[in-house]
Every structure is written in C-alpha cells, then in structure tokens.
Write a structure and sequence with these properties.
The complex is a heterodimer. Chain A is an alpha/beta fold. Chain A has seven helices and 15 strands. In chain A, the strands form three sheets. Chain A has a nine-stranded mixed beta sheet, sandwiched between helices. Chain B is built from nine helices and 18 strands. The chains are: A alpha/beta, B alpha/beta. At the A-B interface, helix 4, helix 5, strand 9, strand 10 and strand 11 of A face helix 4, strand 7, strand 9, strand 10 and strand 13 of B. Strand 11 of chain A pairs antiparallel with strand 13 of chain B.
Chain lengths: 268, 332
C-alpha cells in the first residue's frame, strides 16, 4: 500500500564545522555563522528522509518535506528532493524566527493539518543546533497521534509500523498504529547521496511557501511570540587546554614514554 | 489557580531497584527543595514497586507517590504519559525532574506538551534564582559547542538531567517520609503501541558506564580490525572499549559502544582517545572523564584541547609499544 509520508527538516549551521570557528555574540545571545561554511539540513533530519525513502523504495508512496525558518537557502532545503522526496513545503517568514520547541511544533503541526492526509510523519531525534529533542513528540501530541522516538529501523505492514527503538543497552521492537510520528536516530545508518538525476529534478521543482496566515496561525503563537522557554544566556564553556605532548625519536618510543608518564602521574 | 509546590523527581526502576540516575536526581532535588524550603517529592510508576519507595526516602525524598498498575509493567509512551499527567495535575509540583534516559527523553517532551509547559532536556546544571524562585536550567547546545541557560514561567517547570551530572546523597535508612498511592485509571484502548521484543546488545566485560578506564577509537581506527588492538589495551587496564560516532555508523563496532551526545555518557578516571578528532558531539559524552589521553596524527585535532597528555603520530605505530609498556608497568 503506498503511504503518504511527511518529513520535517531543519536548516542548521553545519555541525561538522571546525569547533574553533564556533563563536557567540554575547550581546544578542546568538551564534555567529562561521564565514564560508554553508548551512546544511540537520543530519538526523536527513536520516529521517532516508527512513521515509526506504519505505517508498519498498512499497511506494509520496514524501512531502516540511521546512520552517526564514531566508532558507533553496540549495540546502531542496536536498531531500534531490535524494528522492516528492514535494517541498516551506514555512518561511520573518515571524518564524526566534521560536522554541513549542512554537515550532505548533506551526509544523498546523501545517500538517493543512496537508491533511498522512500515514507517517518523520522527524530527526533532535536538531543539530539547539539539541532540544522535543519537536517530534510535540507535533504528535498536538495532532493526537502516537509517537515512537529514537528509531533505527522502520517497516510498515498491514496498517501498522514496526519500529526498532534504540535503548541504552540494545533496542526494542515496537508496533504502532498509523498514523504515527517517528523520530529517527543516527543508528538508522547514513542517508543516501543525491543522484545527478535527483539534483536536476529538484532544480526544476518550486517549493510551496506558506506564511503564518496561510495556515491560519495566530500571530501570538508564532516564533518568538509563541515561545514558552526563555533563554537567559548562551555561552561557551571555558577550556583549559593544557596538554602535555609526549615526543620521542620514533612513534614506538613515544608510545612507551607515554606509558611511563602516565605511571609517574599515577594514572595507571 | 492551583498552588504549585515542591520539587518532584520521576524515579526509574532498573531490575526492580531505583536506578542510579534516580538517586542522582534525588540528590539534586534535595538541594533545590532545601533552597526553596519546600518538600522533595518522588513519583514512582510501574507494576510492582517493591522496596523502591522506601529507598527513595532513604536517598532524600520527603514524600513518595506510587502509581502501580499491571498496564504499567513496561514503559509505553501512551500509558506512562497518562499516568504522569494525572500525577502532575493531582500533586501540582513546582518543579518536575526526569533522567535523560531512554524513558525520560521520550516521556518528558510528550508530557510537557500535554501539560502546556516548557522543558529543558539533558541539563547539566540546575539552580534556583534567589529573587524569582524560578528554576534555571543549563544544558549543552550546538552539539556541545555551547551552553544555554533557560527558564520558564509556566508550572511545573520541567527538566531532564544528564546521567552522572549530579551526585546522590549517602542513603540514610532511618529517614522518615510518607508513601502515598495514587490512582491512575488507564484505558487499554488508548495505548496505541505494543512492545513486541526487547533485544539486549550489551558487549561482554566491563560496562562503559561503570568503567574506570576506557579506550576509545574514532574514524582514524579505519575498520573493525583496529578495534581488536584497542580491546587488548582495555583488557590490560581492566577497562572497556568505546567509540565515537563514525565507527558505529560504519558498523565497525556495535551502536551500543557509542560515546557522545547521542550515545553513552561516561565518567572514567582514564579516557584514552585513539584516532579520534574530538568533535564536540563526542566530547559531550566524555568530557567529564578525569584524565583524557589523546593519540592522533593531527596535532591540531580538537581532542588535544581536552587532553592532559598526548602523542602526535600514527596510532598503529604508537599503540603496540604503549600497550606493551603499560603491561610491563602493571606487572612490575
């Protein structure tokens, strides 16, 4: 049975950018985007797209991607299309800026209600910027559908999904009725690369752009206005950075010398 | 409006006993409750709670609430959220704390949205603002590159707390406290999931969370074979082997060996990082180790900023001699 699937994807600063390039502007409590490092789709969200694509490969279906933000880079947010997703809807407006898990989940859930038909909704387990890990569960709660979080495998049969959920010492196999929301973890495995054909097809597709009013969102619930968590301070922890480098004439000697130093320091 | 009072800890049981994160939460909750001059409450949910309520009192709770029901035998989102919704509404605590565990990270967000309140996940520091009496919640963000402090003005103020970020109190079996059962009426028709199977993948030997020495490998190990050398060193040190994300994602080692933001949080005395660059999301899982030792060919690798001792070079040439020498020193 072909399924209607929706995947929520967030554009974030590249989490693989060198840690040394990470800077905060204390006067605004915001991160200064590192120069020359373009944003990306949050990696867990890419894996959420992958989870949906694997189901589409097996039994067909339609994948609609939802991204929320302001000034979204088309090359970035179109990546799921070039991987094989079918449609892209952008919730794009200045008013969406400064949102917390509450306002973001509320806007996404409202947009999903407008899309109307869905069997499965996928989200990444958390976004690579704020690591809040709540939006997926929040959307499910607002829509009143069941959720399974931190999935590493998802299969669908007979109107139910079978999900492998990662737990501390292994995994659980959970069966859930549809429609359901599933958050995806890195244990799912790497997301596929975009194909050349996919990139060309994505280039031709124009995303739909929805403003808050288009989905009937009250201004008091959008972005910063709708937030329930208050950010007091964003800061970088101080690192001491006093590493003693043990050197010798050969790598093997350095290895032996390291062991001797650890003994002197009573670490072994 | 109901009056919100008390600091409440959601307690978890592992094999019928209070889990270590629960004792840590009680330790932290005791401090917050004392600052507020209010009670420390603990809620326990399950099918058979046994001695756990008494233990929660020994670890610092003033009042323990118990929700026992056969439908709560194992964790399922729908049944546990329903039970906790009832408890939170009946008891109206000011603060509600969970562990950042498989259960906590699933239960807390869904409950927060049901109650209409905000939540901070994976907190490493909690404090009470002396003026407003509000809970200030500090947690790592941007994959560990930064920290953020949040507060909220809707009650209960909710947070999940990272494992091993807080210390438990010494248990005192003579402490007095109340144990109050609460009634949760669960409708089996509203539980939309079913646990078909639970598969344990724990590696043999010392558990990473308990290990005093950990030898951890990254992308630079290059494949599953290299990890055998790390195992040899770990064995000599009576420790465990861990990994950063790339070796797990590449299936060189099982996912359960992953240390980091989305893996395990470890706090050994000695953490030997081999061929591992020190991405922030990995450091999030090991930066509380007492001593980090780095072996990496890139002298600019971020791991050297966290390490106490380091060797720059090819681990394949360094590690055998290091392991030999450690063996010799430990034997002599």
């Amino acid at each position: 049975m072909p399924l209607n699937m929706i995947v929520c994807c967030k554009q974030v600063l590249d989490p693989e950018a060198p840690p040394a390039s990470f800077k905060i502007d204390p006067s605004t409590n915001k991160v200064i985007p590192p120069p020359g490092v373009p944003p990306v789709v949050s990696p867990f969200d890419e894996q959420a797209v992958e989870a949906a694509l694997r189901i589409k490969d097996q039994q067909g279906g339609k994948i609609t991607v939802l991204s929320l933000g302001n000034n979204l880079l088309r090359d970035v947010v179109k990546k799921p299309l070039s991987m094989g997703a079918d449609e892209l809807i952008l919730l794009e407006d200045e008013a969406f800026e400064g949102g917390d898990s509450w306002s973001i989940a509320y806007a996404l859930a409202t947009a999903i209600k407008k899309i109307g038909e869905y069997d499965l909704i996928f989200c990444g387990r958390q976004a690579a910027d704020w690591d809040a890990g709540q939006v997926g569960s929040g959307i499910a709660e607002i829509l009143g559908i069941p959720s399974v979080t931190v999935a590493k495998k998802v299969e669908v049969a007979d109107g139910k999904a079978k999900v492998e959920r990662v737990i501390a010492d292994g995994y659980q196999v959970i069966e859930v009725t549809l429609p359901a929301l599933i958050t995806v973890s890195n244990e799912l495995g790497e997301a596929r690369y975009a194909t050349l054909k996919g990139i060309m097809a994505a280039a031709k597709k124009q995303p739909a752009v929805w403003k808050p009013a288009d989905i009937g969102l009250e201004p008091s619930k959008v972005g910063a206005a709708g937030q329930r968590a208050k950010l007091l301070k964003l800061f970088q922890p101080v690192k001491e950075g006093k590493c003693e480098i043990v050197a010798a004439d050969s790598p093997a000697e350095a290895g032996a010398k390291l062991a001797a130093r650890l003994r002197e320091a009573k670490l072994i | 409006m109901a009056e919100y009072k008390g600091v409440m800890v959601y307690g978890e049981l592992v094999e019928g006993k209070l889990s270590s994160i629960t004792t840590e939460l009680l330790g932290c909750g005791r401090r917050l409750a004392d600052e507020l001059k209010e009670d420390l409450l603990c809620i326990l949910v399950g099918d058979k709670l046994g001695e756990a309520p008494k233990k929660a009192i020994a670890f610092g709770a003033d009042k323990v609430y118990t929700a026992e029901d056969p439908l709560l035998k194992e964790y399922q989102t729908d049944s546990y959220v329903a039970a906790m919704e009832k408890a939170a509404k009946d008891i109206s605590p000011r603060i509600l704390l969970f562990g950042q565990t498989s259960v906590g990270r699933d239960l807390a967000p869904r409950l927060a949205f049901r109650l209409g309140v905000s939540l901070s996940m994976d907190c490493i520091e909690l404090s009470i603002d002396s003026g407003t009496k509000l809970l200030q919640q500090t947690r790592p963000v941007y994959g560990g590159n930064a920290r953020a402090t949040f507060t909220s003005e809707v009650f209960p103020q909710m947070a999940t707390v990272r494992q091993k970020a807080m210390s438990p109190l010494e248990p005192n079996e003579s402490r007095k406290g109340d144990i109050t059962p609460i009634k949760v009426e669960l409708d089996p028709a509203k539980i939309r999931t079913k646990v078909l199977d639970t598969v344990k993948e724990e590696v043999v030997g010392v558990k990473l969370e308990d290990a005093q020495a950990i030898v951890s490998g990254g992308r630079g190990i290059g494949g599953p074979d290299g990890f055998k050398q790390l195992e040899e060193l770990a064995k000599v040190l009576k420790g465990a082997v861990g990994a950063s994300r790339p070796p797990c994602d590449n299936k060189w080692v099982p996912d359960t060996m992953q240390i980091g933001l989305t893996g395990k949080i470890v706090t050994p005395e000695l953490y030997i990082a081999v061929g591992l660059s020190g991405a922030s999301q990995h450091l999030a899982g090991c930066s509380s180790a007492k001593n980090i030792i780095a072996i990496n060919k890139d002298s600019e690798a971020n791991i050297f900023k966290e390490a106490r001792f380091g060797v720059v070079g090819d681990w394949k040439q360094i590690l055998p001699a290091f392991t030999e020498k450690v063996k010799e020193l430990l034997a002599g």
